[in-house]
Design a protein that fits this description.
Elements: E1 8-13, H1 16-26, E2 42-48, E3 51-57, E4 76-81, H2 84-93, E5 98-100, E6 107-111, E7 117-122
Parallel strand pairs: 1-3, 4-7
Antiparallel strand pairs: 2-3, 5-6, 6-7
Amino acid sequence: MKIVALLHATFLTADLERSRHFYEALLGLAPSPARPDLGFPGVWYDVGANQQIHLMQLPDPEAGLQRPPHGGRDRHVALAVSNLEELMRRLEAAGIAYTSSKSGRRALFCRDPDQNALEFVEAE
């Protein structure tokens, strides 16, 4: 037995509409029509071949938890992007703070509205 793929990453959100604005308007993702209704508010986004992000509106079990300022020092999901400069402009225009990767790679970290850390690495 071996693990052969990462199929999806799930993030909890306290306010689904606020999070949808971040993932759709800012990051440009579109909801996936192929996912079933699970009986609670949520949305799925396709982010690659057979890979998805799943947002679930549920109470945050870690409310009030102090997160590290740099998302690279926190649990996070890394996503490849075609144009890191464009993403930086979008984040800046939206007033969303980000930090550059400490490794020197063309990458940055930011947080979504629920403080989930995201890494964006420029695809080669």
